[in-house]
């Protein structure tokens, strides 16, 4: 399973317009191309950012979607209008190493960076950490590894129905001595960076 992630940044003062237009275009792409693209905004991160995400069984499926999109002049023309309210600032493709739960209204994405010299051991450590977090929080913790971009990054993904559930999940994890002990082990495998952002699903 692969996930495509397109970062869309609204022009200054145009977030409302960018969100409305991106929502309309995403729905139209899903209807015409049979895709299941999702759209989300950041909460507690960049207030001008939208994320367009797609899930694909293979990169071949993603390629077919792109070919179908660019073969549709109406969709291409509609996407071009986006330039007046927003710009595409990055694209990334990630491989799902460990599947998270089903999409929900909110997600927390926590990003760390693997030490180059301990890459293989770090993967095993992350599997252990995700399994522990799942058992403590009761929410399936997924792991995504970049196929494009910085390949030493690693993302932990958890879904919830509300921000309150995300808070409760965070509190459960940091109340666990076993979970906190994993941070002391992390220095053997990961760089000292662990960034988190909430995402609120629009579609």
Keywords:
globular; 2 domains; 40% helix; 203 residues; alpha+beta
Structure description:
It is a single chain. By secondary structure, the protein is an alpha+beta fold. The protein contains six helices and eight strands. The chain has helices spanning 15-33, 59-70, 73-81, 119-137, 163-174, 177-186, and strands at 2-10, 38-43, 49-56, 86-98, 106-114, 142-146, 153-160, 190-201. A hairpin with a 6-residue loop joins strand 6 and strand 7 (153-160). The radius of gyration is 18 Å and the shape is globular. The mean pLDDT is 96.
Give a short account of the largest sheet: 8 strands, antiparallel, barrel
Structural class of the helix and strand makeup?
Answer: alpha+beta
CATH domain topology of the largest domain: Alpha-Beta Plaits
Low-confidence stretches: none
Q: Separation of termini?
A: 20 Å
The CATH top-level class label of the largest domain = Alpha Beta
Number of helices: 6
How many structurally independent domains? 2
Coarse morphology: globular
Rg on CA atoms, Å: 18 Å
Portion of residues in beta strands equals 25-35%
Number of strands: 8
Strand order of the largest sheet: 1-3-2-8-5-7-6-4
């Amino acid at each position: 399973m692969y996930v495509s992630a397109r970062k869309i940044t609204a022009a200054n003062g145009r977030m409302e317009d960018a969100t409305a237009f991106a929502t309309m275009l995403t729905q139209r792409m899903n209807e015409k191309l049979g895709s299941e693209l999702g759209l989300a905004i950041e909460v507690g991160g960049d207030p001008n950012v939208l994320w367009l995400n797609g899930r694909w069984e293979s990169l071949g499926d993603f390629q077919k979607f792109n070919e179908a999109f660019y073969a549709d002049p109406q969709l291409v023309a509609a996407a071009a209008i986006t330039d007046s309210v927003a710009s595409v600032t990055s694209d990334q493709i990630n491989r799902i190493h460990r599947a998270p739960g089903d999409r929900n209204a909110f997600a927390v994405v926590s990003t760390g960076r693997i030490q180059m010299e301990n890459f293989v051991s770090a993967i095993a450590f992350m599997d252990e950490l995700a399994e522990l977090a799942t058992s403590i929080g009761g929410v399936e913790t997924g792991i995504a590894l970049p196929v494009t971009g910085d390949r030493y990054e690693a993302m932990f993904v958890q879904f919830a129905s509300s921000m309150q559930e995300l808070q409760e999940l965070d509190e459960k994890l940091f109340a666990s001595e076993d979970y906190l002990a994993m941070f002391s082990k992390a220095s053997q495998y990961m760089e000292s960076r662990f960034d988190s952002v909430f995402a609120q699903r629009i579609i």
